[in-house]
Design goal:
Elements (H helix, E strand, L loop, with lengths): L6 E7 L2 E9 L1 H11 L4 E2 L5 H4 L3 E2 L6 H14 L29
Parallel strand pairs: 3-4
Antiparallel strand pairs: 1-2
């Protein structure tokens, strides 16, 4: 759930991302999932009906599973990937325009 009546999403095939990540309204995403070959969704069960997909797996990742997935890499001393923010929607803030003209009272 990305709030603002939107969802964050990405599509995967055999554990490899094939589309996204992106943010869209569920109805707009529903129009796209067929062309992406998506057959099920993980998490965001509230949108399963809108997307027309069965929900599988947990609602959110299990922290223990995430730690185990990274454990071998951490133990081996492998270099960490750089942490880079991923902005999926345009900012709400905008640069201010010219000051409004004020007429004398």
């Amino acid at each position: 759930d990305a709030r603002r009546r939107e969802v964050y999403w990405a599509a995967y095939a055999d554990g490899v991302r094939v589309a996204g990540p992106a943010v869209d309204r569920p109805a707009d995403l529903a129009d796209r999932v067929g062309g992406l070959g998506v057959t099920a969704l993980t998490g965001a069960r509230a949108y399963a009906e809108v997307l027309g997909l069965p929900a599988t797996g947990p609602e959110s990742p299990d922290p223990v599973t995430l730690a185990l997935a990274a454990a071998d890499r951490v133990r081996s001393g492998a270099a960490a990937d750089p942490l880079t923010p991923l902005y999926l929607r345009s900012p709400d803030a905008v640069e201010p325009g010219r000051p409004k003209a004020v007429t004398p009272a």
